[in-house]
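Inverse folding, one chain.
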């Protein structure tokens, strides 16, 4: 209304008061690796955003459980559930959240002061940054890529692999039965996988210039998952150094979240750090300073003469403290007691003294006393 009173708030609106937290405020913390799935095969990430710090409580553990449809290698993530894990059971907070749309602009419904967003790797591809020699120093040009020669049989497989090299022959290729001194192990699903060697020089063994293909199965039908080059060094004239016994080559791929995959994380509530609060006492301020007869946020007066409410704010205060305001001659003008949630580091004063009188224009000294933390002294001015 004309006096500045809020009379109506629409359903799509909110009323907020910008404010700084208390001195020594440590915001809520999320404990847990959100960049790597707690259990499962997906390679995406989870982001937890705190939107209402006061609602985040200490020591709660949450589980984000994924659901998918379809079978390997063409499954798709469909939904996810949010659980709060209790000592003897799990409380379902939100079920069947849509996982087909994801990203920072697709948050979940709010829960316990938080929302979550997902990064889901829907495209199955080689993670080149994580693929390479775990042990070994071969200089061969070993490159992993999607199979392209027989498109109808190509099926990029959502799995990680490890190639381990040996002194003796330990396996043979799937169709041509070429003996080899290595094994390829599917790390994601824990089995030795089949492969084929494309023997370019037809010498009956894996040699520099050949390539191989990892083979996976859908039922009894085989699929060509990934091609691996075994080419000469890229640097012209460099002598090839082939892998030695004990060398291990890792292949990592990006994978969508699959049925049963989940993240788990624990929350820690906002808290006061007294040592930090002591360091931040120097941040205490009076706003506006100087006070020039009026401030923009004050309500207008409805009367033809006189003035409306006057107000200044002390900001960046500790959560509990006493503020004493003195004249320059040392006379106590006002005592304020601040005891607020940690998210609220401000205390307002209407410029009325303890005697109920409007204060005079001039310079004032304020003293902030926070038990167990320390004290701070400052000045502010009131100008006509």
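Residues assigned per position:
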């Amino acid at each position: 209304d004309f006096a500045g009173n809020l009379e109506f708030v629409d359903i799509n609106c909110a009323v907020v008061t910008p404010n700084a937290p208390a001195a020594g405020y440590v915001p809520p913390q999320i404990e847990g690796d959100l960049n790597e799935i707690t259990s499962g095969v997906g390679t995406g990430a989870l982001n937890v955003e705190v939107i209402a710090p006061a609602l985040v409580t200490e020591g709660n553990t949450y589980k984000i459980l994924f659901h998918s449809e379809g079978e390997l290698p063409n499954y798709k993530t469909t939904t996810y559930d949010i659980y709060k894990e209790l000592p003897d059971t799990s409380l379902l907070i939100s079920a069947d959240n849509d996982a087909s749309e994801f990203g920072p602009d697709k948050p979940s419904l709010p829960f316990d002061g938080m929302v979550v967003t997902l990064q889901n790797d829907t495209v199955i591809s080689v993670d080149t940054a994580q693929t390479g020699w775990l042990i070994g120093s071969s200089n061969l040009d070993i490159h992993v890529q999607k199979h392209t020669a027989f498109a109808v049989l190509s099926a990029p497989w959502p799995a990680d692999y490890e190639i381990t090299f040996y002194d003796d022959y330990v396996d043979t290729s799937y169709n041509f039965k070429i003996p080899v001194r290595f094994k390829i192990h599917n790390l994601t699903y824990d089995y030795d996988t089949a492969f084929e060697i494309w023997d370019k020089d037809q010498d009956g063994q894996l040699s520099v210039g050949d390539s191989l293909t990892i083979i996976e199965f859908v039922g009894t039908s085989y699929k060509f998952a990934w091609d691996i080059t075994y080419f000469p060094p890229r640097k012209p004239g460099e002598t090839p150094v082939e892998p030695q016994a004990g060398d291990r080559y890792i292949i990592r791929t990006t994978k969508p979240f699959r049925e049963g995959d989940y993240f788990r994380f624990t929350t820690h509530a906002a808290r006061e750090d007294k040592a930090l609060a002591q360091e931040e006492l120097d941040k205490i301020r009076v706003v506006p300073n100087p006070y020039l007869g009026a401030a923009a946020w004050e309500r207008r007066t409805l009367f033809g003469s006189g003035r409306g409410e006057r107000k200044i704010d002390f900001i960046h205060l500790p959560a509990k403290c006493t503020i004493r305001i003195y004249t320059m001659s040392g006379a106590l003008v006002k005592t304020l007691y601040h005891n607020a949630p940690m998210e609220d580091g401000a205390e307002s004063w209407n410029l009325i003294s303890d005697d109920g009188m409007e204060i005079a224009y001039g310079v004032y000294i304020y003293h902030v006393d926070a038990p167990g933390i320390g004290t701070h002294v400052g000045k502010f001015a009131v100008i006509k």
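The chain has a mean pLDDT of 93. The two ends are 28 Å apart (CA to CA).
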